[in-house]
Design goal:
It is built from three helices and eight strands; from the N terminus they run H-E-E-H-E-H-E-E-E-E-E. The longest helix has 14 residues. The relative contact order is 0.20.
């Protein structure tokens, strides 16, 4: 037989889903959190003409608060900067920079497209910029539609903040673009560290 304390815990888990309520950060107030409290914003990109972009690893990245489907967002990135694509992510630190940017620029809607997709129902995900798939941080239970054509594109911040989800490509979301900074380094631009 269950004790009343364990029944309460079970009810709380059912009410709050995944149990993320147990990891609330100090300073949490019902209905409001300061999502940028421990956020390390990346430094501006020091590439001529792209100083409103930010450094994330070897990439200059920029958040666009303009909901587009996955394909249209990719073409928008390509039109924005030479060699740009929807952003690829290659480390936890890089992922954290992207999270910090979206928290700063659009704290009320954290979901956005990343530049990854499932290749022809193969269960393998690829980056649009052709870089290696060397990092992933999926939401628990995701990707959940591999080998189907229902959810082939990758977003961030669906159910767990800072983690990825596969979703339908036709859904309109904000997005983030990125390009390797050395592809358009011009004379007079500072070298990035």
């Amino acid at each position: 037989m269950f004790k009343s304390g364990s029944v309460c815990v079970l009810l709380l888990m059912l009410l709050f889903g995944s149990g993320n309520f147990l990891t609330m950060e100090k300073g949490f107030v019902a209905g409001h959190t300061n999502v940028t409290a421990r956020c390390n914003m990346p430094k501006p990109c020091k590439v001529h003409g792209f100083t409103d972009w930010y450094k994330a690893g070897r990439y200059c990245v920029k958040y666009f608060k303009k909901p587009l489907n996955f394909t249209t967002a990719e073409f928008s990135c390509r039109a924005t900067a030479p060699g740009a694509h929807l952003v690829s992510v290659h480390s936890k630190k890089h992922n954290d920079y992207l999270l910090c940017m979206v928290q700063k620029f659009n704290p009320n809607n954290l979901r956005f497209w990343l530049g990854a997709f499932e290749l022809f129902k193969s269960g393998k995900f690829l980056w649009l910029d052709g870089s290696f798939w060397d990092f992933q941080i999926w939401t628990r239970g995701e990707p959940n539609h591999m080998y189907t054509s229902t959810e082939e594109c990758v977003e961030m911040n669906w159910k767990e903040i800072g983690r990825w989800n596969d979703d339908r490509c036709h859904v309109r979301k904000n997005y983030m673009c990125g390009f390797k900074w050395n592809t358009i380094l011009k004379p007079g631009s500072e070298k990035m560290k």
